[in-house]
């Protein structure tokens, strides 16, 4: 019963994340290989969880099959490539890394089944540790990494634990225990990711921005900074580009005829904030006005109108900027207006 609940939750979480990947995160500035890797990872985890039902019900000495093992290798690589696209510049991809998908697939097809689980999950642990190192190098740029780094380290520890059980299963622990433990850890992993996305809804955009800053040198040498700053102000205050929920650093840079590095440096050095925060401030400012001027409009409709992708991201951003949620702000504003009258 518990196994069914864990697998059901994981399949639902995978579907929810795939929907978010196709909608709210569709404009995220990610290299194509990382975006494809994200789909491979989510589909792979869903397949792995579904397979755990058959493994737990099997009485065969070796209930694993080649499809399960191949997916296990590919989902580990998918996890790595997805986050690598967030934590590293596009131009830093190395030629030898393009051989990794073929190597993972060959390993899934050729490695003896008894050794496949610990090898695949050991590989995933190594990937998670490398990602944790990349996050640690960015620690000075973003305070949110105090949330992200522990999550990635937990994933690494989960990989170690599952690899150990996978190694122990044919030696006496049994594959039923392996399926139950791994299903539990995958469900915990999905829970951790969902919690992180709720705690920091724009985490992906902030991470990409931090990476751009970490490599930025002086990119504005030949740029008319004052003119570009004035144009940026016009785009936000007159054109209201922040109301486009798909607005990204890359899109804004294109409108200004700058590179993403140049725009990031311009915003950080002249405005003292990151691009994501600039967008959020303008959206919250517009929402403040709409909440007061349009009292019959629902809070959700206001959030969507100013550019937020969902009610949860609207609430989190509004509370971070003003210390209250939108509904409370509207009530306080209405009460203040009555007192003034």
Annotated CATH architecture of the largest domain? Up-down Bundle
Alpha-carbon distance between the two ends: 62 Å
Shape: globular
In angstroms, what is the radius of gyration? 23 Å
Give the class-level CATH name of the largest domain.
Mainly Alpha
Rounded mean pLDDT is: 82
Helix amount: over 70%
Tally of domains: 2
Low-confidence stretches: none
In this structure, how is the largest beta sheet organized?
Answer: none
Q: What's the β-strand tally?
A: 0
Alpha-beta classification: mainly alpha
Please indicate the percent range of residues in DSSP E strands (runs of 2 or more): under 5%
SSE series:
HHHHHHHHHHHHHHH
Tally of alpha and pi helices: 15
By CATH, the topology of the largest domain is Rhopdopsin 7-helix transmembrane proteins
């Amino acid at each position: 019963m518990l196994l069914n609940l864990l697998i059901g939750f994981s399949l639902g979480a995978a579907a929810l994340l795939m929907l978010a990947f196709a909608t709210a995160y569709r404009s995220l500035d990610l290299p194509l290989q990382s975006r494809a890797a994200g789909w491979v990872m989510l589909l792979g985890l869903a397949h792995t969880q579904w397979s755990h039902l058959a493994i737990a019900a099997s009485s065969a000495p070796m209930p694993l099959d080649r499809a399960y093992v191949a997916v296990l290798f590919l989902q580990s690589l998918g996890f790595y490539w997805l986050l690598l696209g967030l934590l590293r510049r596009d131009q830093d991809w190395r030629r030898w890394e393009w051989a990794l998908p073929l190597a993972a697939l060959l390993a899934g097809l050729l490695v003896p089944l008894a050794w496949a689980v610990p090898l695949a999950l050991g590989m995933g642990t190594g990937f998670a540790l490398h990602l944790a190192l990349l996050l640690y190098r960015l620690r000075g740029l973003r305070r949110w990494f105090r949330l992200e780094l522990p999550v990635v380290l937990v994933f690494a520890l989960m990989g170690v634990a599952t690899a150990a059980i996978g190694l122990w299963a044919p030696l006496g622990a049994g594959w039923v225990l392996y399926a139950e433990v791994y299903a539990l850890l995958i469900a915990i992993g999905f829970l951790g990711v969902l919690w992180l996305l709720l705690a920091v809804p724009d985490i992906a955009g902030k991470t990409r921005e931090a990476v751009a800053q970490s490599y930025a040198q002086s990119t504005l040498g030949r740029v008319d900074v004052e003119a570009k700053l004035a144009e940026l102000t016009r785009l936000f205050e007159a054109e209201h580009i922040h109301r486009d929920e798909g607005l990204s650093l890359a899109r804004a840079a294109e409108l200004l005829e700058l590179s993403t590095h140049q725009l990031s440096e311009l915003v950080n050095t002249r405005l003292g904030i990151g691009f994501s925060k600039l967008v959020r401030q303008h959206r919250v400012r517009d929402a403040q006005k709409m909440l007061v001027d349009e009292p019959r409009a629902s809070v959700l409709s206001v959030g969507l109108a100013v550019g937020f992708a969902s009610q949860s991201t609207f609430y989190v951003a509004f509370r971070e900027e003003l210390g209250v949620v939108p509904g409370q702000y509207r009530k306080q504003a209405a009460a203040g207006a009555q007192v003034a009258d």
